[in-house]
Amino acid sequence: MPGLISGLIIILGGFLLSNFAKATISSAADKAGMTQSAGMARAVQIVIIFSAIIIGVEQIGLNIGFLSNVIVASIAILLAGAVLAFSLGAKNMAANIIGAQYTRKYCRVGDKIKIGDIEGEIIELAQALSMSSVSR
């Protein structure tokens, strides 16, 4: 019986803590001008509720080790997929940033450049790209 009461208290405390964390994060993110404050606050709330339920149910005495392992593995697979998608999507941006850094290191605005049979003049060097006027 004490395990049941303490488990329910843990779960209730998790719900209360998650609501407090959601409100705090949402408020702080709004003040900082972040655009995805609601989504970020909701994600934190879900993580806290999930953790409280897992801890509370284990405190009650139910063995949910296998379920916990399956959920953790599923989350890891989803995160790995998101990382892969982000890295493949950011490949061209990373190449542009590196190319612009090398261009800034060795060239200046107004320099004439020739790559293969294409000639041009550098007209702008930005953080992630270098613009040039091209003549063939």
Short description:
This protein has helices at 2-32, 37-60, 65-89, 91-106; strands spanning 112-115, 118-125, 130-135.
Main beta-sheet strand count, sense and barrel state: 3 strands, antiparallel
Q: Decide which structural class fits the backbone.
A: alpha+beta
The stretches of 5 or more residues where confidence is low (pLDDT under 50) are none
What's the total number of strands?
A: 3
Task: Walk me through what this model shows.
Helix content is 71%, strand content 13%. It is α+β, with helices and mostly antiparallel strands and 136 residues long. The chain folds into two domains: 64 residues; 44 residues, no CATH class. Strands 1-2-3 form a three-stranded antiparallel beta sheet. Strand 1 and strand 2 form a beta hairpin. Helix 1 runs antiparallel to helix 2. The protein is elongated. The termini are far apart. The model has no long low-confidence stretch (mean pLDDT 85).
